[in-house]
Amino acid sequence: MDITYKPYIDPEFESLIERINPPRVCIDNDTFPDCTLIKVDSANKQGMLMEMVQVLTDLDLIISKSYISSDGGWLMDVFHVTDQQGNKVTEQSLLCYIQEGICTSRRASKGVKHIAGQEEANQEGLAGRMVLEMTGIDRPGLMSEMSAVLAALGCHISDAVAWTHNRRVACIINVDDISVHGKITDPCRLAHIQAQLENVVEAHHYKDEPRSLRLSPPAARQTHRERRLHQIMAAEGDCEESCSCCGGTNDDIYGYEMWRKGQGTRCNRTHVQIENCKNMGYSLVSVRSRDRPKLLFDTLCALMDLQYVVSHAAISSEGSIAIQEYYLRHKNGGILESEGEKRKVIRYLVAATERRASHGLRLEICTKNRTGLLSDVTRIFRENGLSITRAEIGTRGEKAFGTFYVKDVSDDDVSPRTLEIVRQEIGGTVIVDNKSSSGASPEASFSRAKGSSSSSSGIEEGPRLSFGSLLWAQLERLSNNFRPIKS
């Protein structure tokens, strides 16, 4: 019998360098008149870049420009950020939250997010919820029937997010048991709920079409929800159908060279080019796409899931177009040499940048939180001939907030009469973004309609609702918990 001895390594040793040299954050509102500058010097630990970008994007901040550089064991990043309205970030409590979220270690960083209640709930809250993950072919009515089954089986949906891309759908839903106001603990009941949901999903698919469904307790270390959506959609194969831009040659399948020569300026699709800098030991990956919020986060998700490490990067925008350049290596130190590797990276990047680019009319809903709310809302959409292309709902206290992108099942424009019917049936506050998701204008035209209003003509201009803005509203209350910023 072979006896193998392994040395004992104290778990605290992993974070020793980080504790000796903690991240230094400088938040500058003086250098530029139109944006806030966030500079970070940090030990270059794995995943640090993603953590920093995640802190900023979870607050709905817009990263308009960024410079990333790592030299050996040290990381230096600069982010130009604004709020959703294009203004500087000046609220002191928010600035303190940004610094705390970046400066603390990975373990302590989760503690800060628990206070804010954004992406990662506290452990007590997570213990009371089951996580439902579903992927499959996108067909009208699927979300409506799944939420109806959950409501009929006595399950409350506390929050949910769903994406569609390339005819596929993926959703993550947090549910709890109404009868016990907590996690579903009875294994027989859990198996029954999963079986009923599988019947619904199977009814919407043909025999050989891929689909998956899992209902399970939350993991001890939860992956960021939107990153998890990227992972399960990629596993479902949505990136395999990411198509190239028209006019590209075989050597330039995404038309990047055409755009760079000025021949593709009107194309809003994603263009990717990969070059190898062998003398420097890097692969240069250039991505050109329509600019939008959370684009940097989505791109980094794809690169990290493919096990690539970003050593240097520059991100900027020209009007409505974003330009990203990454100098990277594989985790094993190699560069992108084979054509198969390059094409895989291109497909993953195109899919990652386009999954969140939803199509359809945007509806933002604020109403009283109740059991079966998602079932009611999706049923109303289905009965009025609307299909959901993307959705996100959450709760805060007795209020429920939801953002839905919907389109007519016949691909026609959604009529004002249909919108009015939907508004009256849903109740609460419904904000309609009349701007098409493919439009270039950054200004949104919103119409607010109150469910209690008796006249359909009672339309007001209303502000945009977002989950990040809900967090902002709580930061003033939490500001006393943070230390002052030291530049």
Report on the structure:
With 487 residues, this protein is α+β, with helices and mostly antiparallel strands. The protein folds into four domains: 11-120 and 472-481, 2-Layer Sandwich (Alpha-Beta Plaits), CATH 3.30.70.260; 127-221, Alpha-Beta Plaits, CATH 3.30.70.260; 257-355, ACT domain (Alpha-Beta Plaits), CATH 3.30.70.260; 358-456, 2-Layer Sandwich (Alpha-Beta Plaits). The protein has helices at residues 16-20, 48-58, 92-103, 106-116, 123-127, 142-152, 187-203, 225-236, 256-260, 295-305, 339-355, 373-383, 416-426, 467-478; strands spanning 24-28, 36-43, 62-71, 74-82, 130-137, 155-165, 168-177, 212-216, 271-277, 282-290, 308-318, 321-330, 361-368, 386-396, 399-408, 429-433, 446-450. The strands form two sheets. The chain has a nine-stranded antiparallel beta sheet, sandwiched between helices. An eight-stranded antiparallel beta sheet has the order 1-2-4-3-11-12-10-9. The termini are far apart. Residues 131-211, 362-439 form the ACT domain. This is ACT domain-containing protein ACR. Keywords: Repeat. GO terms for molecular function: amino acid binding.
